[in-house]
Structures are given as C-alpha cells and as structure tokens.
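Sample entry was shown:

___
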Amino acid sequence: MVHRGARGTGLVIHDRSRRLGVRLDAATGLATELLTWSGEREEAVPLSLTAVVETGGEEEFRAPFGLAYVNTSRLDAFRLVDGALAYEDAGPEETYTVTTEAGGWTFLWDYTFRRSHPRLELSVRVRPPHPAKGILRDLHLDVAIRPRDLSAWRLEAPGNHLRPGVAANTLTEPVTVSPAGGVRGSTGLVALHHPEERRVVIVWPLSRTEVGQPVLRSDSGALRLSLDTGLAGRLSPGEALRYGGINLDVLEGTWADVRDGVPDWYAPLGIATPSDHADWIDTVSIFEVQIGYSVFRGGWEYGPYRTVRDLIADLGRIKGLGFDCLQIMPRQPYPSYNVHDYADITTSYGDEGDLRELIAASHALGMRVILDILLHGVIDQEVMARTAERVRSGPFFPRLDEPMSNPFGTGSVGAEQMQVAWSRHILDFEPYWSGGSPPRHPLADERGDWFMRDSAGEIIGIYTKAFDVANVEWQDYFMAAAEELVRRLDIDGFRFDAPTYNALPNWSPATEHRASYSPLGCLQLFERLRPQLKRLKGDTMLYTEPSGVLFHQVMDLTYNYDEQWLVHAVLRPAPDDHSRRTAVRNGRDLAAWFRDRNAVLPRGSLIAHHIDSHDTFWWPLPGHKWRREQYGVRAARALLAVFALSGGAYMTFVGGEEELEEDIRRMHRLRTELPEVGRGVADYDAVAVDHEAVYPVVRRLGRGCSVLLVNLSDQPLEAVCSLDAARLRLGDDTYGLYDAWNDRAVEAGLRYTRRGIELRDVRLTFDAFQPRLLVVRPVSSW
C-alpha cells in the first residue's frame, strides 16, 4: 500500500484495492499525481498540490466592510518530515497521514481512501510552532491539473458562472466557484473530462466548517483551482485545526455518466435532504410583501402596503393571481433587514393584531404565511454612524449615482456593481435606521458574548453588530423566539435571511481557537431548530437565502441566487471574448446549465425560483428595478415561463406581477391542471431543438408529458423539435400536441409513435420571446 514510485523519487500511497493512489513529492511531501491502475499498468493524472499559510500579523478594516490582515508571514516552503508516514485502517476507510513542516508550523496531511465515490478525501491538520502560541490567519490550497493538451479537455462546475462543457484552456480570467456552504447555491464540485478518452477527474472542496472561496483559472497548460479556505484561529502548543477537505477521484466514462451518479455520492458523505418535508412546499408559489415603504436615492419611495390592513384588502387579488403563500418581509424602512427585538412583532413586522387577522384571513383562503426572520445582527445608532462614515470615506461613495446593469454578474465588474449598490443602500436607509434604533442596543451590553469581535474586543459585522450564530446560548435564544412567533401568530414557517452574511472570523476569547467557524455555525442552529418547529407545527416550512448544498440538508427550500446571473447572460450577452467563450449565451445553453445544476444536487432538493424579489429590486436605480423595466415585458414573460414552469417552487416580490397578471394566472393554472408541470420531473435530454435561442425541457409524471419551449431571443423564428419517445416511455398510441400556453392545437410534424420510435420533426414558429407549452397526450384521451 506504500511504495517508491516506478517513475521519479516520490512515495506512492494507494487504497488496498490498488485502484486509486497518490504520488507524493520526495522533498515537500505534497501530492504531484493522481494514479489509477488497469491491471499492472499505471495511469497518471498530473495533479500538483501547493499551499501557502498566512500567520501572525495585525487586523485592519477593509473597505467597504470586513477584516484584512497586514504584516503577516507567508509560509510556502514545505519539507517532508523524515519517517513521518502513518497508516490507519478503519474498515471501510483507510487513511495515510503525511507530516510536513514549514516555518516551524507542522502540517499533517490526511489522505483518506473510501470505497464509494469520491474515493479520496484530502484534509489537513495545522499545528503551531512549539512552545509559543501561533495565529493562523488563512490557509490557501492550490490544486493544478496539467493533462496532456488541456485544450482537449472540458470543464464542468455545475451551478456556477460557466456554461457546461467549456474548453478547459479558455479560463484566461478567474471564475469563482460557489462553495458547499456558500450563498449562491452550488455543490462546489469541479470536473475535468476528456470526451474521447472517456475520463473524468473530480476536484470537490467540501468543508462543513468554513465557507471558503474556490477560484478556477487556466494558465500555462494547467487548470488551477485555488482555494482560500478561510481557516483561522489562535493556537496554543499541542493544539491543531483540521480543515476538511478536498475530495478527489478519477472515473472512467463520460461526464454525463458521472454527473447522473453524483446524487448517489451524498449518502456516504452524510448529506441528505430532510425526510419530514411537507407536501405543500413542493408546488408553493410565494408572494413576497413588505409593510411600510422602502426608500431610495433621490427621495423615491416604494410602499404598496403602508399598513397591514392595506395588505388584508388586497388578499383577494393575490389569491386570484394564483399565489398560495405570503412571505412577509421585516417592516420598512425600520427595522428593515436588521434585528430590533424578535418579541416586538409590531415594530418588526407590523401591527400585531392586524397581522393575526391577516394570517387568519389567509388561512381561510387556503394560503400559508411565512415570516422573513433575521439572523445577522442588531442595528443601533452607534454601528449605523460607523457604517455610514465608512461608506462616505470609502472608494464607492463618488460612484453612488452610477447606473447598474447587472449586480449579479460575473467577475470583478459584477462584484463592484454590487458594492456600489450596497453603499448606496446604506445611505438611503441611514436616517431611518439611525432614527428608529436605540443609541446602543441593549443586547450588546447584556449579552456581549453573543456577538462577533475582533482581537481588540470590538464588536464587528458587515453593517450590523453581528451575532455569533455558532454560540449555543444565542441559538437557544433565537430558537425560543422563532417558536414563540409560531405560537403567537400561527404562521406556517420562516425564510431565514442572511445566516452567513457576516462571513468574518470571530476573534473573541471564547471563539478565537477556531475564529473562522462562526458563520457556518448556523447549520448546527438549523439542525437543532428544525425538529423543534416540526414538533410545534408539523407542516412548517424552513426556507433560507444561502443555497449551497449544505443548506439542502436542513431546509425545505432554498433561494435561487445562483440563477440570477443567467438572466443578463442570456438577454444581454457580454461582448468580451472571455464571456463569449465561457458564459451561458442562449436558450440552449440555459437548458444545459439547469440540467447539470439539477443533476448533481441531493435528491429532493427544492429551489424557489424568482425573476423579481426584493433583492433584485433594491439594488438598481429607480426606473430599472423590475425585469420588465430592464428587458421589456415580453422578455419578462419569457423568463416567467422558464423559471415558473421548469419545476420547483416559484416566488415574486409585490409589484413584479404588474403587466404580467394574465401570464401569472395562466402559469398557476398550468401548474395546477397539468400534474407533470406542477409535480413532475424535468428531463432536458428527452428533447432536442435545432435553434439555439429556444429553451427546451420536458416535464413528465407517469404517462403525463409536456414540453416547455421558450424563445429567448427578440426575433421571431422557426425551429424543429424532436422528442425521444422511447426515453419518455410514452407507449403505443397516436399522440397529439396541444399548446397549453397559447391555447391551441399544434398541427405540425409526425405525431405517431410505437414503443422505441422517436417522435420527430415537429416544426414550430415562435414570436419574439414567445413561450409554448406542448402537452403530449394520446388522441383518444382528448
């Protein structure tokens, strides 16, 4: 199981079956190759691991928010410690531990081989020099894959800002990958595959303790995944921090073969969607509302429901549109998305008596009600003054009047636009947040241990005084508050806003040993809270904003932040060469992106799709807030069809329905009347269209089958659609096609099939941005 490599001087370690192994550099002890064996023949994938460790230094504020470190020491000269190789056999797993040293720090690299995929996990334990304490600021890991002729390999990062199957050598600019605990929604899995050689290399960072930030880039013939783990802590002699880990594998077959098997990987990794999920959530359609009014630059206000009674008066219209759940945001403009006092319902959401009446009236109409509840921190005049001053003295203050085309976009441009919008938002709300809040929030003094702090003991946060969501006593407090809201108001669940928003290390004395853990401590909170809420009200919905794969373990529903960049990518394709080479460009690419993102999620994952939410609404300037204002009503209608009829839950923010009321009623009717649309599965491989502008997906349930086709271009077109009837198991019959979106029969193409014969050559015309929903039914059933 350990031997000197046949080539070179490094050690080779491998599992007991000798199917997968790793070659280690003889000097550094770090990995240089992944190895597989076919008989006695060794096949190598050049995969090199390098690491940089930041230690010591001082903290300083980073504009517009966050902590940065200066005067740190960067350690990267690793040395293999002589004779430092240990082995442990745990039955189904076996682990080799390789010890290296850099700058007096010790690193124990654990290579754990499993029998299930992915078959290898690399983790590391970090120990400080003896005998002094050591401060770890960050651990950067870099995995470079350098195959022969990178241009022949294809890259996959499902759920991220890449279209499927891009050439691996085209990433000349960095592309961030949303990690397993990230906000944007991704598994974090990266695959490099060679279509002709039928070989797939998996690199999958999967940390349950730090959010981290992976970045992909190709250079000098290598695909490089650079992982800023974020691991940080203050360690005494004999102590260690463990970071786990990066999963690795080499598999034979096509990417499609591997992709469709990924859901089977989760159970051995201990990841599964909840088993106590209420049926109503599967098809929920959420209408997001606010009480009060929001404020924006130039004095513009938005307040469709100034009071709860205004919302009660509008319930009949909302129900008539087809929505079956209200999501009530925090009251605007104060406390807005900040914690005032969970027990003070009137200040936080609206008049408590009127809210009870609203919820009772909603229930009488068959509608559910959930509250948007905050976790990230409290607001007071003290923190508001500091935050506003940082904005005014920061780099984005002169740019607050800049129009913003795409705050959810890719690369540095999208990130800068969001920071400009965030800075503008802080100053827009400043007089209201400051005017409504106390000079200093009482919890900051009464329960100071509940807050995140820097090393000097000052409370920190992005713009609030940040709760330490990993603090067990704070978790008890929050759980009690959530349960009391259910009891007092009879609500049907929560949307948990921004639980990982304060992605900062917590250097308080109680948490400094692993300062980087606090943000993902919310996962433990949700694991504790879920059974409590389910015991209180069995069909309660738990819904959250972060949508990384780890949140699918504890939530019924997650947000679709990961999808927002797609809107601009398809409707306003970027002119630069890098985006043309790597981004989603049209309806066909969009369908492939959804197919691959959905395929690698744990079974039972459910996403709330939206095109307009308070998040998409708040950031642009007035006049550009709604998708219909940004792209036109016809394009918004096409987006509605894609996001609402492709499967999963749907939501919109009040006002997003304007000019689309008829389409929204139609969409809800189709989700109700056609079981395959409401509750079926999406099959992107059972349909082919010969025009790239058309987004195609088959929705099926049992023998029920419908085909959603949406022209996502601003030009009319003609396209030929083919269905794989054998894949759909339609059976022997004569089939007709009916366009349920446009309410007319389709008289085109061949519509007869026998088992195993494809339904082909259905020729269709589309107006600009036109949706079509073809219901496939035996003629005898019409």
